[in-house]
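FORM 7B - TANDEM STRUCTURE REPORT

SECTION 1: FIRST PROTEIN
SEQUENCE AND TOKENS:
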Amino acid sequence: MKRRRLGAVAVALCLGGALTACGNGAGEGRVATGPAGRPGGSGPVPPSGEVVLVPLDGRGPSGTGTGAPSMPPVPSSPSSAAGPSGSPPPAPAAPAPTRPTPSGSSRPAAPPPQFAPPSQTQPQPQPPQEPAPGTPPPPRPAALTVGEPLRAPTNRRWCEKVTVQFRNTGGSPVRSGTTTFATHIIGALGVDWATVESAQPLPAPIEAGATRTETYTVCVDAWRVPLGMRIETQDVTASWG
């Protein structure tokens, strides 16, 4: 009977919060008669495995024996989406411009048309145009022929007289030109030692279809023709414009 009274008193003290009571499975109770702490009074004594603590916020029993309420989860903020270095996330790309359609809806704008450069074509050659009837044909160019030179001696071994005939067989007159003489130097035994060229003007003008005869005095350097040698002008050519 005495044990039951002690157990009832211990339960009442636990519920009142003034004293800490505990009980075992056999119905025996222990009552703390002094201040809570270690056997020397140096600090609080942790509960044993026989004590069950109930948190004040009503979250249920805790098996850790600490009795501290757990912290609620911290809500996420927009800054939590930043990268590991704390920099803000990249901004989203701007949408493509839209163009309204007849129905009122919008769609992406089409790219501007590309214009190819105009092709460069080579001009085609035109056929020669025929002259109109009754138009005289254009005159043919001048064509000068040179006859065989006629030689005549002079009182100097290194000079001679050369007569040349020029005939214009073309359709245009010869306005100017040059005649070139090739004079050979002949030795006493008939050896051709050298050829010397000299030039003189044509007897211009020479009309188309006309013939002109001119006599020239052709000379070479005196030292080229020593005593016993002579000269012969064998070739005559002409150039005109």
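SECTION 2: SECOND PROTEIN
SEQUENCE AND TOKENS:
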Amino acid sequence: MYSLRKRLLSLVLVLSICFCGSFVFNANQVATAATGLIGDLNGDGAIDALDYSLMKQVLLGSITDLPVQDDLYAADLDGDGNITALDLSLSKQYLLGLITKFPKNPPENVTTVIMPLGDSITDGIFVPGAYRIKLWENITNAGYKVDFVGSLSNGPAELGDKDHEGHSGWRIDQIDANINTWMTTYKPKIVLLHIGTNDISQNYDLNNAPNRLSSLIDKICAKLPSGGKLYVAKVIPLSYADVRNYNNQVAQVVQNKASQGKPVYLVDMYSAISLSDLSDGVHCNRTGCDKMADVWFNAIKNDLGK
């Protein structure tokens, strides 16, 4: 026998379905990465009457956007590509214990291949593994599979994948001379580029640094697979040089490439790091590395698992 609570819930659900009819809602803004629980419409990690209420409101047209990032992923319970009264009925059955899973299954969690690319700030001098330690944790703790790739390898035991292309002391032109080989060998879906610090430190033909960066970006984008992306960071602060002019040039180069339709995106790493986050005025301490990791993760999180 149903408890009183279940009887009341059943009555509310049935009446709600009657009002909803067969109105079809097509989610207009589908996120780039499906995450969370199917049926969890408010993103609180549980499937309950609050989620049912949200679905009812969607079907009645009283709301057009759900709290979760991917409306269709969360609310399309039967996997037909629409949110309909059939999905509401499935929600009801789940809440009443008549079913224990929905017809739609979560997508397979694809391993995302990422190349951390740059100089010693990517490698890690005072913190071997650098930002890659916390970035690995962020990605795997979020439930995604990741493969860091590159010809170099270092980091502590807590870093589950130590591969990278962070070459200590290297400038833009040195990365550029090798990038085609690396891209062909490792085929990353995402490239995280932080480069230019050594150009500034060595005062190496800075007037042409934007042109060198432009060439490097073109080569990376030409080798990216379908759906691949390049994230280019503004370099972190230096204790002995003002990097803001270079960073403004980085932003301009990235904007120009993006306007050409290339899959390149700017990441403001400069604003996230202060001089107190540096061990020696150049390289991050662990706090700074963790801050860098969080910035990278926030930039790429919607690309993971695809």
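SECTION 3: OBSERVATIONS ON SECOND PROTEIN
Confidence is low (pLDDT under 50) at residues 8-34.
Residues 238 and 265 are 23 Å apart (CA to CA).

SECTION 4: SIGNATURE
Preparer initials: ____
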